[in-house]
Amino acid sequence: MDYIGNTEADNKDILRELGIASTEDLLKDLPQDRIIRQRLGLPPAASEFEVKTQLRKIASQNSSVADFACFLGAGAYDHYIPSTVPVITKRGEFYTAYTPYQPEISQGTLQSIFEYQTMICNLTGMDVANASLYDGATALYEAIHLACEHTQRNIILVAKAIHPEYRQVVHTYLKNSRIIIKEIPFLAGLTDLAALKSQLTDQVAAVVVQQPNFFGCLEPVQQLGAMSHEQGALFITSVYPVSLGVLQKPAEYGADIVTGEGQSLGLPVSFGGPYLGIFACRQEFMRKMPGRIVGESIDNRGQRAYVLTLQAREQHIRRERATSNICSNEALCALSACVYLSSMGAAGLRDVATASLSGAHYLANAIGRIPGWKINFKTAFFNEFVATAPGNIEALNRRLLRKNIIGGLPLEKYYPELKKSLLFCVTEKRTKTEIDTLVSILKENR
Amino acid sequence: MVPKDLKYSKSHEWVKAVGNNTMMIGITDYAQEELGDIVFVELPKVEQQLKQQESFGVAESVKAVSDLFSPVSGMVVAVNEALGKQPELVNKEPYTNGWMIKISLAAPAELSGLLSAEDYEKLINEGSK
Amino acid sequence: MEKVIFEYHSQSTSYVPAADPQAAKKHIPVEYLGVEEVILPQVSEQDVIRHFTALSKLNFGVDNGFYPLGSCTMKYNPKINETVADFDGLAGIHPYAPEECVQGALQLVYELEGFLKEVSGFAGMTLQPAAGAHGEITGVLLIKAYHQQNHPEQKRTVILVPDTAHGTNPATAALAGYQVRQVKSDDQGDIDLDDLQRNLGPDIAALMLTNPNTLGLFEKNILEVSRQVHKSGALLYGDGANFNALLGLIKPAELGFDVMHFNLHKTFSTPHGGGGPGAGAVGTIKELTPFLPVPQVIKKGKKYFWKHQQANSIGKVRSFYGNFLIAVRAYAYFFALGAEGIARVGRQAVLNANYLKHKLENYYPVPYGRTCMHEFVMTPHHDWAVSTLDIAKRIIDYGFHPPTIYFPLIVHEAMMIEPTETETKETMDTFVNALGQIAAEAVQNPELLKKAPLTSPVGRIDEARAGRQLILKYEKGRDAR
């Protein structure tokens, strides 16, 4: 099947109108010897029924969080998604629209982004938020870029307890640039303050941490912020927005730029994407922000109305001097987050955060009491923590799968020193029964 | 509108002597018209040293952005703070209340290299053809 | 107008079990806990649904009507794509689930990369970039890595872009640390070969080229351009924004492109989502494959694996593996169209655009008038007392989305029109009639166009006020009015 609307007769009419015999007559500018003449090596055309069957077959080879109790987090969280979210984001008026460059017929997208920006500002305590970036990792890179531009300094101190893939992305972007990245090690699960202090000079553009960090531990952000500011460096954090249902707002601990992965706000885990890059900052950096921003104005009838604003920062106007090259963003994911937060409200978000952290503490407590198992870091954490097993963890995870449980994330790949260690995550979706079942199987690991 | 008593640069700035070796600088009516509704003007700090042709700031409109170039060398002695709250002054009164910076002139000889009102008018008429 | 969600007040609906309010204090030291309540809407489910439904009605998507937005390829978004993207076995898989739990997902990534290689002629492919511009930076970083690996002694610090290029091209090159130099177009709308020759030299890393270009014209000297670029030791980057014109018609690798991004949200029918998410797959010739981002999916026997280690890889450009559910939609599209359907796409897009151009030329000048590919650029008559903006706004009153306006920059008052292959002759004829009437109005009643749109939920918006007042979030009591 295809989605071409013209009939054969329509096409003949068009050819007649154009005074040509065939579409090939329109292709004279193309190098004729390069035009594809043989059949493409693709599957044969299929009916919608067959497409659905094929995709069902593929989907059936995957283990989904709908059928498995998932204890994986590490930047992708299995939170409950209210029914309101897909109902709204599946409206064709939203998902089949382009970027709202024609505001008169794009008020739906524009106002929802304005509301999203407001919610992100309220959650983080920042003054301004943009309309979204690709994901948490690229948002973190953009924050670093802004900090270097703003301070005109070229050293970045990045905590090693930040998500390894976020650090990899930052490295990819900054390799062979004038910016030097120095990684600050962790000690007992937290960024090593002494190590940080020894590197923190007046050449440092920003100190970058994650809160909670990759291990789920709560960093001493108040101190980290103060130390950064003492040297005139900006303090950048990457946050898990659901945690802000209970944790201190980044503005309260002195963050200058707040980034984060917004997947937890109403987006499915989706094998890693599409997700939602959150970016918010203090007023001072507004004109250096990346990405689109919606502002309020009035129309020629005196009504409140919304438009894209501060566009002179962007690539379509400033070209090689733009603050970022981003064009397409994750607008529909921002809409999901907007509907999610509207549905949950502050109380609902607090319930999600509280249930998640309670479940995680219940699990950590239980694992800590299994002989041979150890909780690596004895420090405050949110809904993730690291535990080390006495025996083979691959075999353990395979055994869990047979019981429809997806176990913790083995960390050795990212941190070679963390042998036999697993990162466990608990969300509000994990029941006491599921946690108890997990614990009973962990007990068999020796 | 090209006032006769000012000097002009090819990059559409005007210069006016305001006494004591001090020059007032802004952008021309033609330039503000081309840019459209100006929403933000980024100006330098007082005491900044500028060379002739060096960028001293940026004017942003809704749909465009333009560098501002200093027609003469010297030190910035004042900036038009009013533009912070009312950037539209550049659109409304480009030659008076929409001024941008005052410079204490370092090389008075540079003035003779600038365009007269007549020459500037010729330049913009050619440009718009 | 619909009020802001924060202006509603009703009883929130609860979606998860209530948690013990003391639990946070029990487990987490008080200095980490928030002091003030987070201000979020407090709204019942009914109000949430009514609010966002009301907002949706203020929007215009491809599902609402003809959307001839040039260079954006607003083709129809098949509904089966949405259905399958919601399957639990696709939307519900955790990116760190063990390989044995995600064999279907890996198969899909592997096969989609294969399909994209087949239609592009490239040897390597990655699905990691999340958007077109993200694909561009990935591609330019590949080019940088290639030059550094193969001849570290050379100082290739400049990237060339034509004056017709999308803004993302120069922005991307600058982001990757390159200087940007512009190459002129000739009077035919092609890249000026003499100017290109003048600019090519030992300092040039690459030329970034969109083909068809943003005038909708096929760069007819493409083979010569490619020869010159390669002779100078530079690489040829392809901006795939306009690839829909070539789909099933010609493979970019056969035209001499070394690396190119593909917007799955343009050519491969995945929706634009009001600005995103999209996906920007990147294809490369064999010589560049060692530098592709990690991880890559490999197949051994009947099993699929992630390959995380690759010595010369540029690394990762995004967390996890890219916008997977967008890839799912593109896969469904490939599967539906198959070899037969894909072969028709480019040709039909070209036929439709030429038809529309032919009809509209009766009313509007087309400055580069030769046979176009999937889109073309027209302007108002220079003696009309209305601007392109006025015409665009009036188009809204006739029930269509306006074209792309004021781009490319080399055409004064440009309107760039792209019908795509999915639109019918009947729809295009209705559009032509409307634009004919607007042309008449432009002569007889220009004031009408200056006031347009009259039928939209809001009229023209004061963008200068937005830029000066800068109200970027809702605050009680603050209002632009």
Report the CATH superfamily of chain B: RNA polymerase II/Efflux pump adaptor protein, barrel-sandwich hybrid domain
Residue share in β-strands of chain C: 5-15%
Low-pLDDT residue spans of chain B: none
Judging by the overall fold, what is the CATH architecture of chain B? Beta Barrel
SSE topology string of chain C: HHHHHEHEHEHEHEEEEEHEHEEHHH
Which strands sit side by side, in order, in the main sheet of chain C?
1-7-6-5-4-2-3
Per CATH, the class of chain B reads Mainly Beta
What would the CATH topology of the largest domain in chain C be? Aspartate Aminotransferase, domain 2
> What is the terminal-to-terminal distance of chain B?
17 Å
Strand order of the largest sheet of chain B: 1-2-3-9-8-5
Class by alpha and beta content of chain B: alpha+beta
Tally of DSSP helical segments of chain C? 14
Task: Quote the distance from N terminus to C terminus of chain C.
Answer: 13 Å
Mean pLDDT of chain C: 97
Give a description of the structure.
The complex is a heterotrimer of chains A (446), B (129) and C (481). In chain A, strand 11 (293-298) and strand 12 form a beta hairpin. Chain A is built from 13 helices and 17 strands. Chain A folds into two domains: 69-80 and 345-442, Alpha-Beta Complex (Aspartate Aminotransferase, domain 1); 84-340, Aspartate Aminotransferase, domain 2, CATH 3.40.640.10. In chain A, the strands form five sheets. A seven-stranded mixed beta sheet of chain A has the order 2-10-9-8-7-3-4, with helices on both faces. Chain A has a four-stranded antiparallel beta sheet with strand order 13-14-17-16, with helices on one face. A two-stranded parallel sheet of chain A has the order 1-15. Chain A has 446 residues and is an alpha/beta fold. Chain A has helices at 8-18, 48-60, 84-89, 92-95, 107-124, 136-151, 164-174, 193-199, 221-230, 315-318, 331-368, 393-402, 432-442, and strands at 69-70, 128-129, 155-159, 180-184, 186-187, 190-191, 204-211, 234-239, 257-261, 277-281, 293-298, 304-309, 374-375, 384-388, 405-406, 409-410, 421-425. Chain B is of the alpha+beta class and 129 residues long. Chain B has a single domain, classed as RNA polymerase II/Efflux pump adaptor protein, barrel-sandwich hybrid domain (OB fold (Dihydrolipoamide Acetyltransferase, E2P)). Chain B has helices at residues 29-35, 82-85, 89-92, 117-127, and strands at residues 7-8, 13-17, 22-27, 38-42, 49-50, 55-61, 65-69, 74-79, 101-105. Chain B starts with 6 loop residues before the first strand and ends with a helix. By secondary structure, chain C is an alpha/beta fold. Chain C is 35% helix and 11% strand. Chain C is globular and about 75 Å long. Chain C folds into three domains: 5-56, no CATH class; 80-337, Aspartate Aminotransferase, domain 2 (3-Layer(aba) Sandwich), CATH 3.40.640.10; 345-465, Aspartate Aminotransferase, domain 1. In chain C, the strands form three sheets. A seven-stranded mixed beta sheet of chain C has the order 1-7-6-5-4-2-3, sandwiched between helices. A three-stranded antiparallel beta sheet of chain C has the order 10-12-11, covered by helices on one side. In chain C, strands 8-9 form a two-stranded antiparallel ribbon. The chains are: A alpha/beta (446), B alpha+beta (129), C alpha/beta (481). At the A-C interface, helix 1, helix 2, helix 3, helix 4 and helix 5 of A face helix 1, helix 2, helix 3, helix 4 and helix 5 of C.
